[in-house]
Amino acid sequence: MVRPKKKKRIDEFEWTNQELVGGADNGRVPELANPQASLEEEEANERLVGTLYKALSSKDFDEVQRLLAPDLEWWFHGPPNHQHLMHLLTGSAPSSSSPSSSSFVFVPQTIVAFGSTVLVEGFDKERSVSWVHAWTVTDGIITQVREYFNTSVTVTRFGAGASQPISSPAVTTLRSASANKCQSVWESKLCDINSVPGLVLAL
Prior knowledge:
- By secondary structure, the chain is α+β, with helices and mostly antiparallel strands.
- It has one domain (35-202): Roll (Nuclear Transport Factor 2, Chain: A).
- It is 23% helix and 35% strand.
- It has five helices and eleven strands.
- The strands form three sheets. It has a five-stranded mixed beta sheet. It has a four-stranded mixed beta sheet with strand order 9-11-8-10.
- The longest helix is centred in the first third of the chain and has 23 residues, at 35-57.
- The N and C termini lie far apart (45 Å).
């Protein structure tokens, strides 16, 4: 009995049943996702995050709300008195022991995207603090931010899957990252790596 050809999705490739079981077309190289579309998505994600910083700088909170998911996931690593972004996004008052968050201005020095993850780095000379934000963009909306203050951040991609970003980044130790043969794709440059803790963000 001959079965009709059915399409099956395996990762990003489409194969027919005949190809999966070693049929006549076996050996054909599957088409990869359109690299131009991936580049355009990354550029769109960079623009979106750049727009967010402009809105934060001008205190246009209607625009900020339009760009962020209502249930934005926020993760912070650094001294507790530097949670300026949380205070800006929520409107909550900083504690009396922390410097005024309302006067803290995030001025990006670099913005770079790796798939759905957009990394932004800056440095506040007045307070002598460096910061890195790792934003996750899903369908044109920012759904997650990981904030690092006075922390050296290295971004890696694991092994063979290095070209395919995973939507939820995880933090690992430098030792486990090197043990899994991670490919380093980005490092923060605005902090003194000898005097701050270091983290690896794995995509």
